[in-house]
């Protein structure tokens, strides 16, 4: 068990795809002696980087599922989560940010702040994650770290402070000047393992003095002691570190480092920065909800001697069984302990406890507050809270976006059928943004998720990891239905077919509701509907929400108020009132002028400026609304709102329009009414399906 | 929103000879630092948008997100001031009719703007009636830039509104006439408005009105929080 909480760092590494996160992680593991050779992301040696442990990730050169890994640096334990860069997998990033205390924001010295950087940065703000920035790829043609610092300031609203200067750039990039020690650092030996200090090259001295002054100015805002020391010319490195640390933890300052992970330059100083400037679990306040006291927020202590509170933030299937990653917020876990799942109240015994090092593991006997460990053989869902049973706490749930796209899949043969079921069961537990259901009418299995690529990856994983070959249909947008005006209902359910009869009458109205998906209000007076039947009425209405009457998609934004009714002393029952509510829904829904809503995506296209016109027209042709266009150097970033239904295949279109020089990201923005023509079309298609018996 | 024209700061133009800036013309809003130039400029933008016109906001300093957030704040202030609760339709209309063009880190040049406007008109059929230009440094820009802007305003048949920072050290004489930095450019601008803050309140003064030679010294009082005209 780790004795000293102040020596733990739980960090994430987040950035735009292809900024070199995985390469940076690989170098960190090498320098911290967790691995003894370095592999590239798309390495010629066929091994692949350590954190890209899934076969598919190595093949595509992207990190899909974040692997937790730990290492040690100068007496500190660092738990690292390598997070995926593609926007379809942001749930992984969101989950990582929930359990981590800080992050390294990796930026490309050529590409700078890109669309995905903005998304990831927004997420980090949501979880109040302090960060240091690492401007990678300074060896690339067109590298300009100073431009990236400006972008951090203007586009992300950070207060960036350069802690280093690059020595040379592009193919001349050879080291960094440390503005705290005022030394030049070079990186020699195998894979830059040996850090060498030297004098600052004379041509950089003036610039270094100027930049150090800027850094001291910024740092002194967080320390009166440093400010006095500056005036008295008695600045020490320790004073600078303390002030930068304070600014970083309060998220009012972002220290910026430069380097090239691929060329083995500048990685060790980033590790130093992680230990010096980023918070330990003791510096971060965490809270939970006390389920016994109306979900009252309670602060957690970060003390290993207090009762246990831990969060299962990631599940992974391994050849040895299900592996559950836990972040311990307070208390400790040792082998043989009993844990209680707050959601299910089930008690489990801690069997094997391991620390993860990408896809390899090391057994351990115990772990304390602030630490991240993995357990074998725990049946749970991602996001579940575990305690020692003396507390009934739940850690606030991770923000989970609703799926926006669905796909019908069917197994190719009997063997695949069984394996597909196993795979789906696994994926649902691992990824809360992935959903699967069997459509009752068509008997088709429908999977849904956050984007085309998201579902594509799962279909591939079914094949590779579970041997399930499936055929896929055409991706379908997750439409919603909503009502647009108030409508009254008054419905009596009455059935007398021998034996006990069924009787229930409900009256009231339904109306549009902005603040959530559904609300039920009972304003029944005088017991005309006995209190015990009210929940059945609510249940009856809720049962209608899954499938709207217009095109069969879920209904959102609906409030039902029941204000009158009638019951029969013998014939009324829960079932009768449920049926009455279903009848009432059907009676009023059509009168409430239902409309169809479609998901609108926030799309960000980044391209060389000469393609601005092409990119804008392509979005416009897809019913896109151009919000803005920002010119930055030779690049343009266009922001638009586009219906998801029109975004299928956009990657190919954009590639051909811009000679492959543009890229785009998108995330869900809101639901909006579909145009009338499309509404008619969707209704016709639904009618057709209904005729064929598919709907 | 019919009533907005009655509280819009551009109501001051009712006192102008033509009642508006007009296509092909340049207008400037001058104020000292921190008086709310950008806010007031965005009110001018809303005035145009509420008339159903199309508008391009050109920012030489702030990111599109920041500009959009200024619009958001001022929009919700406006809705509150006008006691409008159902803003859905209005917001939709405004967002459809406004595009932000940002030029970050000295990426601005007039040819680029010209190219971008061409793309908007030809590529997505968005022909603006008004350009709002924020962040031009009048002190450094030079006359050539404004002559070129005048050419652009005529070619694209748009009216162009700028914000200009006046210096704190204006002399008494300058305070009575058109202050720097617009003083030397006065012939290029058809309307010049000045935002003044004094112990009596915030006022908008019409300093130049097309070819009119004598302009009576009349200032319109604005609400210091919302910049809306007070009767």
Account of the 3D structure:
The complex is a heterodimer of chains A (695) and B (231). Chain A has 695 residues and is of the alpha+beta class. In chain A, 28% of the residues lie in helices and 32% in strands. Chain A folds into five domains: 274 residues, Rossmann fold (3-Layer(aba) Sandwich); 108 residues, Elongation Factor Tu (Ef-tu), domain 3 (Beta Barrel); 74 residues, Elongation Factor G (Translational Gtpase), domain 3 (Alpha-Beta Plaits); 108 residues, Ribosomal Protein S5, domain 2 (2-Layer Sandwich), CATH 3.30.230; 80 residues, Alpha-Beta Plaits (2-Layer Sandwich), CATH 3.30.70. In chain A, helix 4 links the parallel strand 4 and strand 5. In chain A, helix 6 packs across helix 7. The radius of gyration of chain A is 29 Å and the shape is globular. About 2% of the residues of chain A have low confidence. The two termini of chain B are 18 Å apart. An eight-stranded mixed beta sheet of chain B has the order 3-2-4-5-1-6-7-8. By secondary structure, chain B is α/β, with parallel strands linked by helices. Chain B has eight helices and eight strands, in the order αβαβααβαβααβαβββ. In chain B, helix 2 crosses helix 3. Chain B has one domain: Rossmann fold (3-Layer(aba) Sandwich), CATH 3.40.50. Chain B is 35% helix and 23% strand. In chain B, a hairpin with a 2-residue loop joins strand 6 and strand 7. Chains A and B meet through helix 5, helix 14 and strand 36 of A and helix 3, strand 3 and helix 5 of B. Strand 36 of chain A pairs parallel with strand 3 of chain B, so a sheet runs across the interface.
List keywords for this structure.
heterodimer; A: alpha+beta; Rossmann fold; Elongation Factor Tu (Ef-tu), domain 3; Alpha-Beta Plaits; 5 domains; 38 strands; B: 231 residues; globular
């Amino acid at each position: 068990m780790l004795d000293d909480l102040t020596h733990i760092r739980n960090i994430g590494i987040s950035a735009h795809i292809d900024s070199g996160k995985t390469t940076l992680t690989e170098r960190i593991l090498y320098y911290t002696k967790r691995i003894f050779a370095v592999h590239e992301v798309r390495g010629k040696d066929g091994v692949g980087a350590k954190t890209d442990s899934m076969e598919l990730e190595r093949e595509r050169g992207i990190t899909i599922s974040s692997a937790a890994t730990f290492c040690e640096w100068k007496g500190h334990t660092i738990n690292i989560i390598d997070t995926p860069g593609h926007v379809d997998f942001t749930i992984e990033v969101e989950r990582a940010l929930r359990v981590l205390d800080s992050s390294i924001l990796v930026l490309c010295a050529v590409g700078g702040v890109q669309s995905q950087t903005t998304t990831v940065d927004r997420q980090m703000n949501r979880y109040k994650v302090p960060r240091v920035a690492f401007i990678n790829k300074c060896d690339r043609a067109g590298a300009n770290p100073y431009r990236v610092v400006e972008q951090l300031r203007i586009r992300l609203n950070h207060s960036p402070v350069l802690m280093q200067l690059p020595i040379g750039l592009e193919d001349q990039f050879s080291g960094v000047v440390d503005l705290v020690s005022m030394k030049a650092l070079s990186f020699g030996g195998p894979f830059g393992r040996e850090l060498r200090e030297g004098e600052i090259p004379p041509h950089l001295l003036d610039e270094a003095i100027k930049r150090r002054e800027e850094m001291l100015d910024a740092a002194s805002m967080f320390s009166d002691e440093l400010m006095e020391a500056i005036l008295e010319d008695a600045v020490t490195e320790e004073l600078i570190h303390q002030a930068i640390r304070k600014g970083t933890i309060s998220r009012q300052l972002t220290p910026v480092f430069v380097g090239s992970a691929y060329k083995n330059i500048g990685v060790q100083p980033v590790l130093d920065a992680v230990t010096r400037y980023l918070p330990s679990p003791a510096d971060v306040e965490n809270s939970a909800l006390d389920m016994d006291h109306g979900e009252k927020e309670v602060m957690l202590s970060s003390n290993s001697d207090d009762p246990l509170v831990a969060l299962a933030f990631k599940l992974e299937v391994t050849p040895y069984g299900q592996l559950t990653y836990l972040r311990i917020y307070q208390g400790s876990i040792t082998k043989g302990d009993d844990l209680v799942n707050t959601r299910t109240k089930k008690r489990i015994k801690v069997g094997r406890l391991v620390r993860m090092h990408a896809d390899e593991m090391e057994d351990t006997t115990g772990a304390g507050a602030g630490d991240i460990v993995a357990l074998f053989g725990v049946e749970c869902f991602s996001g579940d809270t575990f305690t020692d049973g003396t507390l009934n706490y739940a850690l606030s749930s991770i923000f989970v976006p609703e799926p926006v796209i669905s796909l019908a899949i069917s197994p190719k043969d009997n063997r695949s059928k069984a394996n597909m079921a196993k795979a789906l069961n696994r994926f649902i537990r691992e990824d809360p943004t992935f959903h699967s259901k069997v459509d009752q009418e068509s008997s088709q299995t429908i999977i849904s998720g956050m984007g085309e690529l998201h579902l594509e990856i799962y279909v591939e994983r079914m094949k590779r990891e579970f041997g399930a070959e499936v055929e896929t249909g055409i991706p379908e947008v997750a439409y919603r239905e909503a009502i647009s005006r108030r409508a009254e209902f008054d419905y009596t359910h009455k059935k007398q077919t021998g034996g006990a009869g069924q009787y229930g009458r409900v009256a009231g109205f339904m109306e549009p509701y902005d603040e959530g998906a559904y609300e039920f209000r009972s304003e029944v007076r005088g017991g005309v509907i006995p209190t015990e039947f009210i929940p059945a009425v609510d249940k009856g209405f809720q049962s209608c929400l899954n499938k709207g009457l217009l095109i069969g998609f879920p209904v959102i934004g609906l409030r039902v108020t029941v204000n009158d009714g009638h019951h029969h002393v013998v014939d009324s029952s829960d079932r009768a009132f449920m049926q009455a509510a279903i009848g009432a829904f059907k009676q009023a829904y059509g009168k409430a002028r239902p409309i169809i809503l479609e998901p609108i995506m926030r799309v960000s296209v980044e391209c060389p400026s000469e393609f601005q016109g092409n990119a804008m027209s392509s979005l416009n042709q897809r019913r896109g609304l151009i919000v803005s266009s920002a010119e930055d150097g030779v690049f343009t970033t266009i922001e638009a709102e586009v219906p998801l239904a029109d975004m299928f295949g956009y990657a190919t279109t954009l590639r051909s329009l811009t000679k492959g020089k543009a890229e785009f990201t998108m995330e869900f923005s809101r639901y909006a009414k579909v145009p009338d023509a499309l509404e008619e079309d969707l209704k016709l298609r639904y009618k057709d399906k209904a005729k064929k018996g598919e709907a | 929103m019919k009533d907005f024209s009655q509280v819009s700061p551009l109501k001051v133009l009712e006192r102008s000879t033509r009642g508006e800036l007009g296509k092909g013309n340049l207008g400037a809003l001058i104020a000292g630092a921190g008086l709310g130039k950008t806010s007031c400029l965005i009110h001018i933008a809303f005035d145009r948008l509420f008339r159903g016109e199309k508008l391009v906001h050109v920012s030489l300093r702030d990111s599109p997100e920041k500009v959009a957030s200024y619009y958001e704040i001022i929009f919700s202030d406006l809705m509150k001031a006008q006691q409008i609760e159902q803003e859905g339709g209005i917001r939709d209309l405004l967002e459809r009719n406004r595009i932000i063009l940002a030029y970050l880190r000295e990426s601005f040049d007039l040819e680029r703007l010209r190219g971008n406007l061409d793309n908007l008109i030809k590529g997505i059929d968005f022909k603006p009636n008004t350009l709002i230009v924020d962040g031009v440094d009048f002190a450094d820009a030079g006359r050539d830039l404004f002559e070129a802007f005048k050419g652009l305003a005529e070619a694209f048949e748009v009216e162009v509104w700028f914000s200009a920072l006046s210096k704190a050290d204006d002399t008494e004489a300058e305070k009575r006439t058109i202050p720097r930095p617009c003083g030397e450019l006065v012939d290029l601008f058809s309307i010049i408005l000045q935002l003044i803050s004094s112990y009596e309140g915030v006022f908008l003064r019409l300093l130049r009105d097309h070819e009119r030679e004598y302009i009576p010294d009349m200032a319109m009082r604005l609400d210091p929080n919302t910049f809306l005209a007070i009767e």
